[in-house]
Design a protein that fits this description.
Blueprint: E1 2-6, E2 12-16, H1 52-98, E3 102-107, E4 112-115, H2 118-123, H3 127-130, H4 141-157, E5 167-172, E6 178-189, E7 195-203, H5 205-232, H6 234-258, H7 265-293, E8 301-304, H8 305-322, E9 326-330, E10 337-340, H9 342-363, E11 369-376, E12 380-387, H10 414-424, E13 428-433, E14 439-446
Helix pairs in contact: 6-7, 6-8, 7-8, 8-9, 9-10
């Protein structure tokens, strides 16, 4: 700004005064002394020359003013950054406070430092009452030692003892009950090395109820499919049973006629042996059918897959003969053993055989043949059902979906059920078209190296 000074002789001099901020000014000392040899009219302003000391002082104040401006800019930037951090912190707190999952934060001492409102619904504790409590107060007693060991191991080495993403664990409710939860955990290490942990807890009971309901529905569908298969096999089974029963009647009558003839003991003995053999054959057919249609919980036992194949082919042999289809069994001599539910595996084999038979019958193939082959690799047993039908016309990935069928009256659940059974046995079913025509469906399941006792 300018300061106007009036001398005694009527001269008017305008001097620059300096500001180092917006609130103070430096006064000019003895302004009359710096006016030398200037003769101007009273209407002019004069800009007198400054001494070196005055110039240095002005330069110093300008530097201070520049530094002051920079400082004010930095303060404004820091204030804006603090406001942004506060806004982000408020937003994260809103997200945490409104989340439907329970959220817990703990420090390196295993003490709870934050609990969101959803902890009240899941754990039965007021969030404020959880602050400062050890996390072990929410862990069932039988899991506390494992938690402490894993927690300290991570603090010391950074190595996780369990998965931190969606792992199912158990927590204690305020009423003492144990609740299954799906837990995801995150960690943050401060510059000083201290850890902070955040855990998201989701009630696993709805998921487990849904899984159980799905299991029951699948078991019902599986049983219905077995009943359907048994009904379709009824005519063939009647024929299959008629053969051993006719043999039993014939040889029983023969034995009765020869019973009083002492010289015919060998014929009587032979007839009785035939009766016994054919009775066991009929009994085996009925037992296989009964087990197939029996509604029961899956039973995990070791059993021979070759035996399961033979049992199923015994049921379906008559129907294959009626359609003039040749069955070629190529069973490995290793007698592979798997761990699982034999009835379910037999259902898979039966379904694959029936599909192959229907495929050949509907296309009126000149070569009417089904091959069943079992073989092994290092860890898996593979059961192939190979037909000479028209092959797979639908996309392979679609044929295992429920309610997808190429048959005019098919429900489209058979292969979907078979794939579900294979998955429950930690295996899978694959399908491919053969180069010479027809298709191959392959069941892959883990084999048991130690056969033990078969069921």
């Amino acid at each position: 700004m300018f300061t106007e000074i009036h001398s005694g002789n009527g001269l008017s001099v305008a001097l620059h005064s300096l500001r180092i901020d917006h609130f103070s000014e430096f006064p000019v000392e003895n302004p009359i002394q710096i006016i030398q040899h200037y003769s101007v009219s009273s209407s002019m302003y004069l800009s007198p020359p400054l001494s070196m000391s005055d110039s240095a002082e002005i330069s110093h104040h300008e530097r201070l003013a520049a530094e002051n401006a920079q400082l004010r800019a930095r303060v404004m930037d820091l204030t804006a950054a603090v406001n942004r951090l506060k806004e982000a912190s408020d937003m994260y707190r809103i997200v945490a406070d409104t989340a439907t999952d329970a959220i817990l934060c703990i420090d390196e001492e295993n003490e709870i430092i934050y609990a969101n409102p959803s902890c009240q619904e899941l754990l039965g504790h007021c969030p404020a009452s959880l602050i400062g409590r050890p996390l072990t107060s929410l862990i069932p007693e039988h899991l506390q030692a494992a938690h402490e060991t894993g927690f300290q191991r991570f603090i010391q080495t950074g190595v996780k003892s369990i998965s931190w993403s969606g792992v199912e664990l158990e927590v204690l409710h305020a009423d003492g009950s144990i609740i299954p939860v799906d837990v995801s955990i995150g960690s943050l290490q401060a510059p000083g090395g201290q850890y902070r942990f955040t855990g998201f807890l989701r009630d696993a009971r709805p998921r487990k109820r849904f899984e159980e309901e799905s299991r029951v529905r699948m078991a019902t569908l599986t049983h219905a499919e077995r009943l359907k298969s048994a009904g379709e096999l009824a005519a063939g089974l009647a024929h299959e049973l008629n053969q051993p029963l006719s043999a039993v009647c014939l040889h029983a009558d023969l034995a009765h006629q020869l019973f009083d003839k002492p010289d015919q003991n060998d014929l009587v003995k032979n007839s009785l042996e035939v009766i016994l053999l054919q009775s066991e054959r009929a009994s085996g057919i009925l037992n296989t059918l009964r087990e197939l249609i029996r509604k029961s919980e899956p039973i995990q036992l070791k059993f021979s897959v070759n035996d399961a194949v033979l049992a199923v082919t015994q049921l379906i042999r008559a129907e294959l003969q009626s359609h003039e289809i040749t069955l070629d069994l190529q069973l490995t001599s290793e007698d592979p053993v798997i761990l699982g539910d034999r009835i379910q595996i037999e259902q898979v084999v039966l379904n694959l055989l029936k599909n192959a038979m229907e495929s050949i019958h509907e296309c009126d193939s000149a070569t009417r043949r089904i091959a069943v082959r079992t073989h092994c690799d290092a860890s898996m047993l593979i059961l192939d059902v190979i037909d000479t039908g028209p092959g797979i016309t639908d996309p392979v990935e679609a044929i295992f979906q429920n309610f997808v069928s190429s048959k005019p009256n098919g429900l489209g659940i058979g292969l979907g059920i078979c794939q579900s059974i294979a998955n429950r046995h930690h295996g899978r079913i694959t399908a491919t078209n053969n180069c010479q025509g027809g298709a191959t469906f392959s069941l892959h399941v883990p084999r048991q190296q130690d056969t033990g006792e078969n069921s």
